[in-house]
Amino acid sequence: MGRVTKGRHRSCMFCDQRDSPPSDEDVLAKWVARLWPKGAGFRVDFETVGEATAIESFQAPKGTLGLIVKRPCRRCNNGWMSQLENLAKPILTPMILGRVSSVAAHGIALEHQIVIARWLLKVAMAYEFLRGRQPRFYSRGERLALMQGSIPERTGIWAGYYTGERVARTIDTNENIPLLLSNGVTGSAYSFTLSLGRLVLQSYTHRFATAVHGRYTFRYLAVWNEMSVELWPRATGNVRWPPPYGIDDDRLSDFADRWAKRGTSE
Ligand SMILES: [Zn+2]
To answer: Which domain holds residue 227?
Structure first.
């Protein structure tokens, strides 16, 4: 990248600098865990789908959702990441708690959609580093750009209303999804789905071996338009909330898997 990386610490996953020590980042912030009354820790379900589907559950320590990465530096964690959490908290709180009336009156405002999109991508990018893993999809440049406020190109963000039984669930694709356009250009994609309380969020990014120019749309079964709303990049104004139908646990699995099943998205 040709960036100056002075200092003695491991380079930060976002700013790529070494001058600030690594810090513990809750991939799902503690303020989310604190939305529920104090009690036993939550069951958090991790799921990866694809060639080797794996489901794992664990009991999070009290007051957290238990997903920690040590890769952002202290400056990032206490700076822009903390500011983004503070922006997201009042927007996401009524959605996570299922208090639809306050949001439904006006829908999700455009500036709130962008905050949600940035917040979810911060989660998805940090999630890639869980348990010492090497990130499979998002690049150093895309993480740096997110820090500076940019959403990766060819990314979509959707939100749905969860009606299932679980408190927190993550589902990502454990292999990059192979894509093939009709003109023979190949590509790959990654999707990350998160349910927190009553809120489902999903990000999907695709890229191609050769630059593909022009406008793009994300194609999926029309039924998902009844169960989710697109927050990025299509919206030009407030988005209705909630969608006409909720997403239960079975549908959540299908929702998370919808990109892999299509095989192509262009
Ligand atoms: Zn940093």
So the answer is: 25-261
Q: Distance from the CA of 117 to the center of ligand 1, in angstroms?
A: 20
Ligand 1 centroid – CA 6 distance (Å): 13
Residues with CB under 5 A from ligand 1 (ion): 12, 14-15, 73, 76
Three-class SS of residue 257? coil
Q: Are strands 155-161 and 199-208 parallel, antiparallel or unpaired?
A: antiparallel
Ligand 1 centroid, distance to 237 Cα (angstroms): 33
The answer to the question of residue 178 being in a domain is: yes
Q: How far apart are CA 20 and CA 30, in angstroms?
A: 22
Measured in Å, residue 13 CA sits from the centre of ligand 1 at: 7
pTM of the predicted model, to two decimals?
Answer: 0.91
Q: How many domains does the chain have?
A: 1
Backbone angles phi, psi at 68, to 5 degrees: -115, 135
Residues 116-170: pLDDT tens digits?
999 999 999 999 998 788 888 999 999 999 999 999 999 999 999 999 988 888 9
